[in-house]
Each structure stands twice: as C-alpha cells, then as structure tokens.
Design brief:
The protein is α/β, with parallel strands linked by helices and 211 residues long. The chain has 2 domains: 2-131, Rossmann fold, CATH 3.40.50; 136-209, Jelly Rolls (Sandwich), CATH 2.60.120.320. 24% of the residues lie in helices and 35% in strands. It has helices spanning 14-21, 34-40, 56-64, 80-90, 106-121; strands at 2-6, 26-30, 46-49, 68-71, 95-99, 125-129, 133-145, 151-156, 162-167, 176-177, 188-189, 194-209. Helix 2 (34-40) crosses helix 3 (56-64).
Amino acid sequence: MKALILANGNKPGYTLVMEHIKDAGIVLAVDGAARLVREYGIRADALIGDLDSVQPVDLSFIEEQNIKIIRLRREKDETDTHTAFDYAVQAGADEIVLLGALGKRFDHSFGNVMLLTRALKRGIKAVIADEKNTLFAAQGFLRLTGKPGDIVSILPLSEGVVADGSRGLKYPLNCLPIPLDYPVGVSNEMTADEAAFEIAGGIALIALSRD
C-alpha cells in the first residue's frame, strides 16, 4: 500500500499532490499541512502533529470533514513527520511518498531525509519529492529513468559508500569512494533516458534533479 504524507515544508503544487494522491491507500497531513487539505480539497485520513502550526481556519475545516486528529505532545523525541511515517508503516504501507518535506528549517529537512534511511532498513520504498527533485536512500544495484541532462547526485548517508559500474552517466563511476567529508558524487548527468549503477557499499542518498 502506498502512503502519501503531506509535511509542513515548502508547499507542493496541486498537480504534484494530485499525481501522488490518486493511487495512495492512506493520506496523512502533518501539522501545518492542514492548509493543503483545505486549499486542495483533500480527503485526508488523519492530521498528525502537535498542531502548533495549524491555523484556526484549517483546523475548523479538518473538524468539519471529520478527519481523524492525532494530537501529539509539543515536547517529544520524534518529529511530527517521523510520527506520521511510523503511523503509515503501522497501517501497512510498503511505499511512502513525502511531499512538503523540505523547507526553511534545515534541521527538519535533514530529519526527513533520515527517514529515508529508516525506510530502506525496513524494506519500504520511500521518496521525498518536489517539482524539481526526487530523493531516496539506496543500496545495491539501481536503475534510474529520466532524460538526458537530468542531474544525478550520490551523497553518503553512512561511512563506506562506494559507487560502481555505471552506464548512462556523463562521469563514469568505477569503484568510486564517496566519503562523508568529500561530496565527490554531486552533479553527475544522465546521457540517456536510463542510467544504472551500483551502491556497492554503505547507504547513499540519491538525488535526481531536473532544471
């Protein structure tokens, strides 16, 4: 089952939200993303958060639509998005799309990227997406689809990341170590509609970007 999580970062466009909501088995709004539920007329399954960023007009809409509200304590170990992520997993999601997961707060943005590793370790397919970027954590052999000129970046999420055996990329990857202190994997470029390579060690963040 696919879960769509709407986080309270940079506002995703209507088209992107509708693209992902059409086949989502569960839709969760995180705190201030209640605004998206009201503005886009989304039938969410739950609003999750401490509600510190929810505007009264949005909360009223949520209540009028009888959408489940899971109110969290303000002081807690997990972020609101982390709690929504775990809620989706417990509901049976094996695929999770996070929209609005990047924004002004770098700490929250990076925390959401960490959730991609959490998903990978649990065998769950998870991506953070916006209109220009798709991010996911990866190990092993990868095949990416896109178009020539799309940017592919490989960033380490752990020690020991090695990229190898590439095709369809401008800059070949041949047993390339990508350490935590040297972002050598930034801004490779697709030369075909498909690219493939292997993350032969460690856990990497893959960023597929379009200008």
